[in-house]
């Protein structure tokens, strides 16, 4: 029998492209840990930022400097990533793509 853990988490690569001060694209990737959000909890979420508040559990392989130049950690790092337009779109896309891609019909 197949057992479905409805409280699961998973790691997913996140590809991110940002435009630097010189107008050039800078590409990189990092890993995010997401938790599965049941449909009953996602129906009232108005946008991707609220989705990330509910599903983003952690990140690895990315550094965001704080105002003092030191790398942010913990909740400060998560808040900075969710507040950055490029990072938040990349994170939400990685979450949604992983759910859809893994469950497409196989030939």
Automatic annotation (TrEMBL):
Highest taxon of source: Bacteria
Protein name: Uncharacterized protein
Source organism: Vreelandella titanicae
């Amino acid at each position: 029998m197949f057992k479905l853990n409805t409280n699961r988490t998973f790691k997913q690569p996140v590809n991110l492209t940002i435009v630097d001060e010189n107008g050039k694209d800078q590409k990189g990737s990092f890993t995010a840990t997401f938790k599965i959000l049941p449909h009953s909890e996602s129906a009232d979420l108005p946008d991707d930022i609220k989705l990330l508040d509910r599903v983003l559990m952690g990140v690895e392989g990315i550094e965001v400097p704080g105002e003092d130049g030191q790398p942010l950690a913990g909740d400060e790092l998560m808040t900075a990533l969710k507040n950055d337009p490029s990072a938040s779109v990349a994170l939400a896309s990685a979450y949604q793509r992983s759910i859809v891609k893994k469950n497409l019909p196989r030939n």
